[in-house]
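Fill in residues.
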């Protein structure tokens, strides 16, 4: 009799509860690599109507999850197997935390009792503790009835305040444990208001606007936090109403179009050196802004910083007017006070910027007009710029050293959050993951502009791109090396130099192996044709773009960060 009533009871298990909890919170996509103990989780997610995108390496799955989080303000989910798969995903999780992208890495883990006694389980690792230094938060779920709470905590940690990467450990026992379905259902949490607004204090708003009103040479710096906030219209109004010149950090390009008359991007060194009041909106004073001090900056500049993270203030330089709040709320609070003409931006300031901008633009135009053979970074990027000029809805992914530096300056963006690049770490290896994530969430085409070395870190994801038939076009800037392809082994031995890659590599053959379209181009006409054709076809495409092995500089624009051998002059 007992067995009869048991079989009548409706049961669920940890796998089902994870999928139910994600769906309940509007999360519809998982990026991952299947294996023990999460294969059934991936299968079940797909069976239950979620989209599962399977990768070849967890780092790319994690990068796709992170960028989808950046684009949607919902945590991207990366699913990894235990120990090695978990660690492979960790680079992406750390990168997400560093960049402020919301993602959750969910990983299965081995038997706790065995792991804790270090008895050598299959893929044994204390994953939660290994994740902690790299994650904004890390949680472990040991019982199926805690899955709902575990996922709720992970969602809140990922998207509230400064977004970041969250690690969620699911033990194999919790996944396979069976509980009563009604109890399971009751344990799920629909997260209400996962990223609560942070309204700035009125006195902080007043202090900031008072300081801004004293400025003669004000500057607004927009960072990717401003892009993330999706307050596009208000940010534009703030800039246009005040008439203050703005400088976009690389992933904030397009928040206002790059050809906006108030853009000071082409006068960057002038505005950093001479601005008297600088308002940072969702941009940190880290290495990308020379920490707000030193030769690039005016020592007397005063700073207003708008950021959701209170401890960001004074992290590199004194902040005279901190405004802690979410950017949408802060900018709308500013807009309640700023009236056209209220800020006195001096005419000399605007003239100086306009002159410098004209001068630098003309200088760059000369560089861009050159038609060297073989092509160099500028001439190949000019082609891409021209092809993309009337296609503002195409995402641009960009990584490399010179490919990144030149790409950032040459490729104009017209819409917010369309440029996805190496970000805060200047990391290599985000290319294919970001391209896949952007294509999956947006259904828009993506052009990934990749240095040949940078591409190599995630190149196997070409198979993923082809398997899901994503509209991704990869342009590999093939100069046969890290930085350059003309490195020399000083011993005269047959080993290539440390920065040399395979000379004459045919990257387009790689995508052909998976049924994608490959082009090899070595002049601007062929590149134009190939890029236009591939964008028109929407097919996965790789364009091997052969450029001069001598083109480029070591470490690109950040040579100053590269310690040099002091005792010899090797090059
Ligand atoms: P960039 O590299 O473009 O300069 P950073 O990553 O250095 O940008 O800075 C982004 C900043 O934006 C971080 O300090 C983060 O705390 C902040 N931020 C992110 N989202 C928001 C938001 N919605 N409201 C306020 N600040 C935010
Ligand atoms: Mg190269």
């Amino acid at each position: 009799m007992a067995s009869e009533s048991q079989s009548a009871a409706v049961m669920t298990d940890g796998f089902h509860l994870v999928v139910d909890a994600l769906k309940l919170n509007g999360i519809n996509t998982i990026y991952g690599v299947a294996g023990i103990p999460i294969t059934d989780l991936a299968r079940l997610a797909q069976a239950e109507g979620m989209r599962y995108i399977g990768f070849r390496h967890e780092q790319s799955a994690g990068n796709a999850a992170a960028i989808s989080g950046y684009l949607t303000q919902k945590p991207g989910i990366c699913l990894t197997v235990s120990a090695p798969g978990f660690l492979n995903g960790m680079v992406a999780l750390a990168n997400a935390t560093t960049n402020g992208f919301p993602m959750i890495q969910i990983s299965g883990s081995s038997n706790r009792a065995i792991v804790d006694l270090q008895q050598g389980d299959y893929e044994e690792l204390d994953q939660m503790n290994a994740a902690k230094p790299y994650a904004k938060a890390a949680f472990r779920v040991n019982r199926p009835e805690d899955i709902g709470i575990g996922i709720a905590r992970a969602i809140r940690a990922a998207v509230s305040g400064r977004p970041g990467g969250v690690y969620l450990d699911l033990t194999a026992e919790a996944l396979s444990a069976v509980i009563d379905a009604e109890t399971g259902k009751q344990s799920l949490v629909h997260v209400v208001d996962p990223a609560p607004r942070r309204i700035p204090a009125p006195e902080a708003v007043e202090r900031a606007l008072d300081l801004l009103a004293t400025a003669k040479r004000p500057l607004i710096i927009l960072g990717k936090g401003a892009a993330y906030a999706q307050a596009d219209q208000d940010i534009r109004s703030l800039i246009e109403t005040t008439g203050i010149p703005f400088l976009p950090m690389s992933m904030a390009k397009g928040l206002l179009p790059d050809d906006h008359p108030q853009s000071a991007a082409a006068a960057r060194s002038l505005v950093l050196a001479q601005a008297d009041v600088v308002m940072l909106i969702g941009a940190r004073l880290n290495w990308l802004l020379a920490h707000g001090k030193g030769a690039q900056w005016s020592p007397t500049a005063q700073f207003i910083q708008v950021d959701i993270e209170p401890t960001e203030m004074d992290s590199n330089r004194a902040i005279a007017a901190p405004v802690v709040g979410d950017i949408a709320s802060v900018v709308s609070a500013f807009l309640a006070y700023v009236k056209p003409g209220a800020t006195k931006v001096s005419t000399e300031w605007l003239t100086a910027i306009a002159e410098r901008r004209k001068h630098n633009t003309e200088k760059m135009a000369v560089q861009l007009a050159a038609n060297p053979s073989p092509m160099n970074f500028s001439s190949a990027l000019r082609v891409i710029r021209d092809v993309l000029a009337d296609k503002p809805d195409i995402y641009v992914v960009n990584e490399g050293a010179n490919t990144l530096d030149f790409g950032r300056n040459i490729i104009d963006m017209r819409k917010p959050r369309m440029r996805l690049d190496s970000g805060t770490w200047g990391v290599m290896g985000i290319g294919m993951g970001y391209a896949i994530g952007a294509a999956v969430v947006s259904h828009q085409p993506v052009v990934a502009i990749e240095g040949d070395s940078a591409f190599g870190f995630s190149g196997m994801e070409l198979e993923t791109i082809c398997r899901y038939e994503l509209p991704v076009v990869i342009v590999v800037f093939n100069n046969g090396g890290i930085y350059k392809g003309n490195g020399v082994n000083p011993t005269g031995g047959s080993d290539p130099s440390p920065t040399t890659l395979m000379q004459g590599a045919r990257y387009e053959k790689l995508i052909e192996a998976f049924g994608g379209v490959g082009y090899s181009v070595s002049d601007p006409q062929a590149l134009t044709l190939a890029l236009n054709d591939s964008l028109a076809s929407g097919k996965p495409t790789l364009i091997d773009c052969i450029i001069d092995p001598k083109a480029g500089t070591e470490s690109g624009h950040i040579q100053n960060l590269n310690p040099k051998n002091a005792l010899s002059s090797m090059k």
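The chain has three domains: 12-187, 202-354, 370-559.
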